[in-house]
Amino acid sequence: MDRAQLERALEAVFLAAGRVVTIKELLKIFPDANQKELKEALNSLKTFYENRGFVLREVAGGFRFETKEEFAPLLRRLVFGAPPKLSRAALETLAIIAYKQPITKAEIESIRGVDSSGAIKNLMEKGLVKICGRKDVPGKPLLYGTTPKFLEIFGLKDLSELPKMKEIEKMLADE
């Protein structure tokens, strides 16, 4: 398969998948292509779509097509599955887990000052949080962390793309 065919095939895969597709999956789909060829084709597609209505973005350890933010007002008129609705308690809990993971329920509650059982359960049901082990202390409490679905919903490549605390403090100060 030549480069042009590979790029067209990648476009078809991303459109059909409708989700993040990892390099590992792409290597299975295209057994004759190596990782370098795939990355070159992906970079070429990223460049090509920079001036289109959508872009190829690297998110949650893989790639997917996303519409550009400038078209959000138009797209809000569409009726499609919205991201999960989260209560203030769930958002607070999710933020704590995202920034402090892996973290125990007691540590979350220490930061929030209230019981977080319901919020944690809700986040787990929505697939945004998972149990990622046990802390090596007496009682062996569960440790919680975010999932790839969290990265996907929030459009993050990895956790390093979370806003830094200084950025958040500056935004709050500006308001």
UniProtKB/TrEMBL annotation:
Domain of life from the UniProt record: Bacteria
Residues annotated as signal peptide: none
Keywords: Cell cycle, Cell division, Chromosome partition, Cytoplasm
GO-annotated biological processes: cell division; chromosome separation
InterPro entries: ScpB_csome_segregation, WH-like_DNA-bd_sf, WH_DNA-bd_sf
Keyword Flavoprotein applies: no
Protein name, entry field: Chromosome segregation and condensation protein, ScpB
